Task: structure prediction
Amino acid sequence: MSKTSDKQKAVKSVQHKAVDYDKVLSGVVELLDAARRASARVVNSLMTATYWEIGRRIVEHEQAGKERAAYGAELLTRLSADLTKRFGRGFSVDNLERARKFFLTFASAKKSATTLRISASSAPAPIARDCGTISTAVVALYAAVAAAVGVCR
Result:
């Protein structure tokens, strides 16, 4: 064999490996991107269901199903202090009040969630930051997810 032939084989081998590497790299990048998107959707769904459940528990405990208890502010203040101490920021009285309003706005979501079927192939709905813009069907979906993992009673 000549030196030229050996060099040509080496160049072809390196080029072939580069193409194979690019395929592996792009496949891994796609996999990681998909996993990150999916995990973000799951976290958003569970957090939405969790805040709905927090609101439900506030309403059930504090108000015993009534429109508004006079001592409600005291519970929210105490709960805010204890949760902030334990979990850090994100549990202000205002945020707990939002969770309460979220539950009151979508109190029927758990009932309608039992009729939904969650499929892996369905595209999840985006999560809105303003509870007033979240559709009942989306909230029902999140409640169904929460029920499936045992967040809701």
